[in-house]
Automatic annotation (TrEMBL):
Leader sequence segment: 1-23
Keyword list, A-Z: Signal
Organism encoding this protein: Mycolicibacterium rhodesiae (strain NBB3)
Protein name: PASTA domain-containing protein
Length: 108
């Protein structure tokens, strides 16, 4: 096996726990932001795109948002989040950018 393949395998093995921790962190943040009315039996509300983006920025990530329309992010919901790795002169960045896809309903 060549060194490039070995490096890619090692990087994938190291990235899996980081991505799992990010998913757990986002799930924890979502449950921490849950509507207190849910304790009384009311349906919980999901965090808005603005809440999730603020949480990611608070964790030190650079956030790139993909959405359509001009609806404010506090009225949008998250479709997905992902991180991409980029190599520059053989060095891989430290997963500092998170891409957020948000659904924003049409403005009324």
């Amino acid at each position: 096996m060549n060194t490039t393949a070995t490096k890619k395998i090692a990087l994938a093995a190291l990235a899996a726990p980081v991505l799992s921790a990010l998913a757990i962190g986002l799930a924890g943040a979502a449950s921490a932001d849950a509507d207190p009315a849910a304790v009384d039996g009311a349906a919980p509300t999901a965090p808005t795109a603005a809440d999730t983006i603020a949480d990611l920025k608070d964790q030190g990530f650079r956030v790139t948002v993909n959405t359509t329309g001009a609806t404010p992010l506090d009225q949008c919901s998250i479709i997905s989040t992902r991180q991409d790795r980029h190599q520059h002169h053989g060095r891989t960045n430290d997963l500092v950018t998170v891409y957020v896809d948000a659904y924003c309903p049409p403005a009324a």
